[in-house]
């Protein structure tokens, strides 16, 4: 691993973000990444966070048109309420703050506690839970469905609405609508290694894959002998469509787990598009790349979000973050 | 690997690019990726290409403000002259075409032949060789220094000049200047696996690293027991500065080889900045991410480019490609 020691991995990365991104304010000690111009007058503040190891999620999505702040925890470990309260205080302009929380037990508990603490400080807080992963109900780290790729859609679309000046109630409702309109399914072709452990966190023999893996390597639905890209696309898209049943166009995220080459991801994207065509699901936009990762896991996930005209317009709206940038 | 069969990996990826990027024209059969609005009237056309497996290089850099076309070869194999001639013909508006060629024997031969063929068709062609890798002189695939990360700087800065309407002679001179002002050094912490071979292309035991590795896994300067991120930054930056000796600000690319998590890359970027500060080299801009990859190789490289005001202005100029986007 390209690290100094396991204990400083998150702090080292934050020092790097501070050095490289002058448009962000990075509190290395306090573990909060904030857009430099926060709080933006009259604007609802969007705060997210979670365990590290999923980069660019969430810190790479801080900036105009998306998150106002992110709180990174230790690798695969929830951040603590103090970080979230600090983030909320840094971004609140008086218009309130939305917490975007992936559904893992630790994150949910800590964000709930942070919401209470922030309210005590006079900050109005709403929270939205992201739980898009259709692979399993109840898993290693959570009760209910896990939160994965839809987080990017929620952060981008709600972020665009907040940037336009939408009030907290509307930003919250929109974030909830994006989550409810999104489903994901992921596969692992190779395990990931956390800095603390230094060896693979789960055992996945060469020539096998895990269908429905979680973003921390949690078990999925089943393990099989290696499948082709096309077969994996069939399985993943059908798993998503089994639960989503869109009756209109979708946003598609073809997301790399970390170690799968972009060459392979684009080939997989071709297969995802083929399956969606065969199922008569029109695709409005597709994003291909490593956005919600699991350290050096090999594999990919598919997230679909059924969009209406407003959601699509907000998806296309300008965004200026380290990892997602378009428009102006 | 997330593939169908090894034989269709490049075609599958091109089908994916065609499906996902309506702003590009992708000739899957002919293996050329072209910006949709090419040829742009009065504009010099920029064409690059090389073996696949380094994505997003080069196809991900096609678009306004960067490349007009890219020709992907098979994995780690030069594209053929026919592809390059097709690309040149597709982007030439009469203002001429610049070939940007990484210094590998096969690429150099094929781009030279393509330049002759294109000239026969009445297209004015200039070529610039990128040879920034200070690790070794002469290597597995080439005579002289290898071309690696500086390719991104050449394509971006020359691309911005061409977009502004600079004539071929000036775009060529600028591309040459960027290459001459750039040096790179890479390290591998784990080998990569090509689809055709299906097993690691070189042998790198756990707990060792290759200092000065090439982007196809070619041997570098030496193999050592694992070093810390800080020690690797010292070694890599000093190797670059031993040859570059900048007397002004630099652009820095902290590039991932493919399988190294962004979390680790940002930590490495912090160390690269520390070393540059200690060596009194000011950093104007830093780009961190997987831009010139080697399939699923673990590791990273550092590229520095000494910039003057014009080069920095052109670096900051708008770019709209799949992998690099800013401004408008």
Quickly list its features.
14 strands, transferase (chains A, B), kinase (chains A, B), homodimer, 2 domains, six-stranded mixed β-sheet, 328 residues, alpha/beta, kinase activity (chains A, B), Rossmann fold, 33% helix, Hypothetical Protein Tm841, Chain: A,domain 3
Walk me through the structure.
The structure is a homodimer of 328-residue chains. Chain A is of the alpha/beta class. The first copy, chain A, folds into two domains: 6-180, Dihydroxyacetone kinase, domain 1 (Rossmann fold), CATH 3.40.50.10440; 182-314, Hypothetical Protein Tm841, Chain: A,domain 3 (2-Layer Sandwich), CATH 3.30.1180. Helices cover 33% and strands 24% of the residues of chain A. Chain A is built from eight helices and 14 strands. In chain A, the strands form three sheets. A six-stranded mixed beta sheet of chain A has the order 1-2-4-3-5-6, sandwiched between helices. In chain A, strands 9-8-7-12-10-11 form a six-stranded mixed beta sheet. A two-stranded antiparallel ribbon of chain A has the order 13-14. In chain A, strand 10, helix 7 and strand 11 (283-289) form a beta-alpha-beta unit. In chain A, helix 2 crosses helix 3 and helix 4 (150-163) crosses helix 8. The radius of gyration of chain A is 19 Å and the shape is globular. Chains A and B meet through helix 1, helix 6, helix 7, strand 11 and strand 12 of A and helix 1, helix 6, helix 7, strand 11 and strand 12 of B.
